[in-house]
Amino acid sequence: MFEPPIQRLIDELARLPGVGRKSAQRIAFHLLNAEQADAQRLADAISEMRSSVRLCNRCYNVTADQECSICSDLRRDTTVVCVVERAQDIPVLERTQSFRGRYHVLGGAVNPIAGIHEENLRIKELVDRVELEGIKEVIAATNPTLEGDTTAMMISRRLKPLGVTVTRLASGLPVGGDLDYADEVTLGRALTGRQEL
Amino acid sequence: MAIRSDQGIVLRGYPFGESHRVVVLLSPNHGKLRTVAKGVRKTKSRFGGRLEPMTHVDIVLYEGKELDTVTQVSVINGFPNIRNDLDRVLAAGTMIEVVDAVIQEDDPSLRMFLLLQRGLSVLDDAQPHPALVTAFLLKAADIVGVAPAFDTCSGCGRTDNLRRFNFAAGGSVCEECRSPGSYSLRAGVVEYLASVAAADITDLPNTDESMSKEALGITKRFMEYHLERQLKTLAVPNV
Predict the structure, then answer these.
(1) Which residue of A has its CA nearest to B47?
(2) Which of A89, B60, B168, B185 has the fewest beta carbons under 10 Å from its own?
(3) Is A93 near chain B, with CB under 8 Å?
């Protein structure tokens, strides 16, 4: 046990994902030995993030304003929406520089065994957006897992009657990978989704 | 620490650490197996989609103190048609959930493994029969020793006048043995349930939609009573 102020910080840090007690102790002592201003900047960043960040009114991405920077960007294509499980997935897709539409964050994926059903996600909000915003295509960019695929099928079932095109991210071989190491499921999907050259 | 080979059907998985996943399988030899697949959540993982739920796999495990580590996987049957159909995924999810609830670790049940394997194969081969999930639940109940009685009164053993169903008593009850909590069923439901329980899951009896739903509802409630937990995957109204 350390002195109470240090021990309290170690206990709090150890509650973070992926941080064990030893790592928490190392971080705490690093902060203790750091400049006062450096430690204060970290404290301010955490405090500001908690007090100012909220969910975008339109897409449920995290933002400091009413609408996130993507939804308020007038250059984006408003007729295409990419549906993701979590807000963390948006920067990953943005890095591709291949998508110029807007997003919709579901807040997870359907997992009936874990008790996560359609009504626990923002699928109804997506249906409302499609009806109100004149969206023509919805891209289901959920993870290529059983839960992600199930969620994509549920989205498709809800949106198809509205006359909107629902597409799914392609599955296949990673660029730079070796065919020898591809698993049967991925390779099977790559074959099914093959494209004419 | 040793390396061993086994086979199993993946029941579920959950994230573990930065990129690992704990994968829970049903093995014919060891019951429920909790294993760790390292790096499986990375896009370039050598396991790829082989450890997704509802996949029958051959695995090589490195035995650990708490969790065994998966070192090799090959797919025996990926049941690909289930994954592409929402109704089949939901039906398979119920099968998986029930098996996950009744089988424990180091509690091998070859019958349960074979039932799950056949259930998934039937789902993969064709659109599910309306009574498939009901039949699966009844057969799973039989394997774990809680099969409901349909032909005889659970109280006195008589074979006629069976118009009620009691979860605690273990199935059908006659008017004389009825107790609080006994449900009155429409004519023909008990006979239909008896025929579903006796039939092979590849050759199930047909009936109308409302009878099929009532049979599933009563079976669901029966299983939930004996499992002492809700079946989250089954979205049918309670009877």
Answers:
(1) A183
(2) B168
(3) no
User: In this structure, are residues A60 and A107 in contact, taking their beta carbons and an 8 Å threshold?
Assistant: yes
Determine the distance in angstroms separating the CA of B200 from the nearest CA of chain A, rounded to an integer: 26
Structure tokens at B87: 């109704």
What ipTM was reported for this prediction?
0.78
**Per-residue model confidence as pLDDT tens for chain B (239 residues):** 689 999 999 999 988 888 899 999 999 999 999 999 998 888 777 787 889 999 999 999 998 888 899 999 999 999 989 988 888 998 999 999 999 999 988 888 999 999 999 999 999 998 889 999 999 999 999 999 988 888 888 888 888 777 788 888 888 888 888 878 788 888 888 889 999 999 999 989 988 888 888 899 989 989 998 888 888 887 644 43
Domains belonging to chain B, first-starting first, are: 3-80 (2.40.50.140), 81-235 (1.20.1440.120)
pTM, full prediction? 0.83
Interface test with B, best of A113, A157, A169 (most B CBs within 10 A): A113
Lookup: tokens for B55: 């996949």
Q: Are strands B164-166 and B68-77 parallel, antiparallel or unpaired?
A: unpaired
| Residue spans per domain, chain A | 4-52, 75-168
Tell which of B229, B232, B234 to mutate to test the A interface (max A CBs under 10 Å). B232
Which amino acid, one-letter code, is at A172? G
| Calpha distance B182→B185 (Å, rounded) | 9
